[in-house]
Design brief:
Layout (H helix, E strand, L loop, with lengths): L5 E5 L24 H13 L4 E4 L21 H11 L4 E7 L5 H14 L4 E6 L4 H6 L7 H19 L7 E4 L4 E3 L9 E2 L4 E2 L14 E5 L4 H10 L2 E4 L4 H17 L8 E10 L3 H12 L3 H12 L14 H6 L9 H9 L4 H6 L8 E4 L1 H13 L5 E6 L2 H18 L12 H5 L14
Parallel strand pairs: 1-2, 1-13, 2-3, 3-4, 4-9, 9-10, 10-11, 11-12, 11-13
Antiparallel strand pairs: 5-6, 7-8
Helix pairs in contact: 1-2, 1-14, 2-3, 3-5, 5-6, 6-7, 13-14
Bound molecules: flavin mononucleotide.
The site of flavin mononucleotide has 20 residues, from strand 3, helix 6 and strand 10.
Length: 442
């Protein structure tokens, strides 16, 4: 069968990916604390047969914008997914769990419990935390990159070892014989390194997929490549251009190969922000409503990207011929070339910003077919094995993706018509694994 794409959905604060989402008509302003809202959003993604939900997590400092904007993260990713697990049946659930600020025993226990509750649908986004604001919440300074990644390798190995501490058929639960478990098949782990250790065993038997799937979110730094290359089945990526995405995907595949794995075992899944509307004008207007508060600040940044003076008071005007002639895309920001291309098309300053030229992920603002075209283009260029999609506003943006974009991708043979299996491993085509991968023994 032809290669088909994997699609995940960003499940953040309950409102949507853009800062104005909480104030949009029809949005319940208390969705931030509503588990029901998150379950409904997960159910909508499952209706679209999406393979997984992606829950980022900081926990970073409260944003300076809290006066006007909702925090970007979930109240608590594991508690949210416990609720989502009970309200869904097939969709995978991938939560972020820091390897810097958690003990491996806690991570192993929580993720495996979720894996059991969800019948084999859990994934762990194993990241290193960066940022002094996160560290301050734990009363420490942020460790060096070498120490963060050194700890991350130990944490992932111990977590995986703990996951395998019950053999696959250790749990007998035979009422007739009275045997609950085979104690000879439950082993302590006794693993330790420079940073962390655990005796084990865990007291949780295998799930339907054996154990959770390991993800990693990050860029292609040498340390991230070494970590993801060894352990990750999928990388949640950020790439603004198709060239960057191709290079990152190739780098992660090479890293997996260097770790002795088949490169097809690691899927590269960059992000995509969507604003879906009947036409381009309506989509840009929607993005203006959702993000305009940030435009003065973004205009100042656009000035640096293009190397010309830009007057934020002239939001309704295109850049002048003199400005366009003098503009030079900054080599320090890969988004600059695209920003200049959009500016040269003659859009007003407000519309240039509404195109998402300064967003963290590529933005598609337009009708569903444009979103599908973007995904097809990147997928067929081997820049992506799939996408994690961040709708601007969950309330309608998620349905517009599921009902508008997904059928186009299905008609084009690029996306499955239904789930073939029950577990996250099934959905990703991730090889079976139980305990530490024997190819990567400590
Ligand atoms: C798409 C994407 C998603 C990320 N999600 C998270 C997250 O949920 N929580 C987090 O602490 N860091 C997250 N990160 C940050 C990375 O884990 C990592 O800290 C960052 O890329 C710096 O990596 P470095 O230390 O190798 O330079 C994310 C990064 C990317 C690109």
């Amino acid at each position: 069968m032809a290669r088909q794409m994997i699609i995940g959905m960003h499940l953040g604060n309950g409102y949507g990916a853009l800062p104005g989402a909480w104030r949009m008509p029809g949005v319940d302003p208390t969705s931030y604390t509503s588990f029901d809202a998150k379950v409904r959003q997960a159910q909508a993604a499952e209706r679209g047969k999406l393979q997984f939900l992606f829950l980022p997590d900081g926990p970073s400092a409260l944003s300076a914008e809290i006066e006007y904007e909702a925090p970007g993260f979930n109240l608590d990713v594991m508690m949210t997914l416990a609720a989502v697990a009970r309200g869904t049946e097939r969709i995978g659930m991938v939560a972020t769990g820091s390897t810097t600020f958690n003990e491996p025993f806690n991570l192993a226990r929580q993720f495996k419990a979720l894996d059991i509750m969800s019948h084999g649908r859990a994934g762990w986004n194993a990241i290193t935390s960066a940022g002094d604001d996160v560290a301050a919440n734990y009363g420490v300074r942020i460790p060096s990159s070498a120490d963060r990644y050194g700890r991350a390798h130990e944490v992932v190995q111990i977590v995986q070892a703990l996951w395998g501490s019950w053999s696959k058929d250790a749990w007998v639960h035979d009422q007739a014989s009275g045997q609950f478990a085979k104690s000879a098949e439950i082993a302590p782990i006794n693993l330790g390194g420079k940073f962390v250790a655990s005796r084990g065993p865990l007291y949780i038997p295998p799930s339907e997929q054996g154990q959770p799937v390991v993800f990693h979110a990050g860029g292609a730094s040498a340390n991230a490549l070494a970590l993801a290359g060894r352990y990750a089945s999928a990388v949640i990526g950020a790439a603004f251009t198709i060239e960057d995405a191709r290079a990152q995907r190739a780098a992660f595949r090479d890293a997996a190969e260097r770790a002795g794995r088949d490169p097809d075992e690691i899927k590269f899944i960059p992000g995509l922000m969507t604003t879906i509307a009947p036409d381009k004008r309506a989509a840009l207007d929607r993005r203006i409503t959702l993000t305009e508060r940030a435009f003065p600040q973004r205009a100042a940044y656009l000035q640096q990207m293009l190397g010309v003076r830009i007057d934020p008071a002239r939001m309704g005007e295109p850049l002048s011929p003199d400005q366009l002639a003098a503009a030079r895309p900054s080599s320090g920001d890969p988004r600059s070339t695209y920003a200049l291309k959009i500016a040269r098309e003659g859009w007003t300053l407000r519309d240039i910003l509404a195109h998402g030229v300064i967003d963290y992920q590529p933005v598609v603002a337009g009708p569903p077919v444009e979103v599908a075209d973007h995904m097809q283009h990147w997928f067929e260029a081997e820049a992506a094995d799939g996408f994690w999609v961040a709708p601007d506003v969950y309330r309608d943006g998620l349905d517009d993706f599921v009902d508008g974009v997904v059928p186009i991708l299905q008609q084009r043979g690029l996306f499955h018509l239904d789930y073939a299996g029950m577990t996250l491993r099934d959905h990703l085509g991730a090889p079976a694994q139980y305990g530490i991968d024997p190819r990567i023994m400590p």
